[in-house]
Every structure is written in structure tokens, then in C-alpha cells.
Specification:
The chain has about 80 residues and is mostly helical. The protein has one domain. It contains four helices and no strands. The longest helix is centred in the C-terminal third of the chain and has 27 residues.
Length: about 80
């Protein structure tokens, strides 16, 4: 999901001049003539993705955190 948002953001950033030119020659911001009347965000699905992403992040961090918690400080300093 984040990759898609990043790609769209980069695309808009790269096409700023093109979008400005289209607006200068008469393109309008409203898309209601093409069937898009309201922006609808899937709030439920977004919340599920955020929660699942958080859970996956916590699960992925458990092993490194456990390992770091058991690390002997003197041995860690002496390895370099």
C-alpha cells in the first residue's frame, strides 16, 4: 500500500509541468462530467491494513529485540 502511494506521489511530482500545462489550456479540476462525483475512502479496509501492518512489524521485531536483550554488553564491546 505504501509503495503504491509513493509511486503515485512521485508520478505527480514528476508531472507537475505537464499538469500545469493541461490546466493552462483549459482542463478543469472537476471530474463529475466523467462519472466521479465523490471521493470515497475505504476506511474499514485502511484500518485493517494499518493494524495488520503494525502486528507484522511487532512480530518481525520480536526476535531481534529478544536477541539484543540477551546480549552481554562486555562481549558486544569487545567484538570490534
Amino acid at each position: 500500500m505504501i509503495c503504491i502511494a509513493n509511486t503515485i506521489s512521485l508520478s505527480v511530482h514528476e508531472r507537475t509541468r505537464e499538469l500545469g500545462l493541461l490546466r493552462a489550456v483549459g482542463m478543469t479540476r472537476a471530474l463529475s462530467t466523467q462519472g466521479l462525483e465523490a471521493l470515497a475512502l475505504p476506511v474499514g479496509e485502511l484500518l485493517v491494513l494499518v493494524v495488520l501492518g503494525g502486528l507484522v512489524g511487532v512480530i518481525a521485531a520480536l526476535r531481534p529485540a529478544w536477541r539484543a536483550g540477551r546480549l552481554d554488553v562486555v562481549r558486544a564491546i569487545a567484538t570490534e
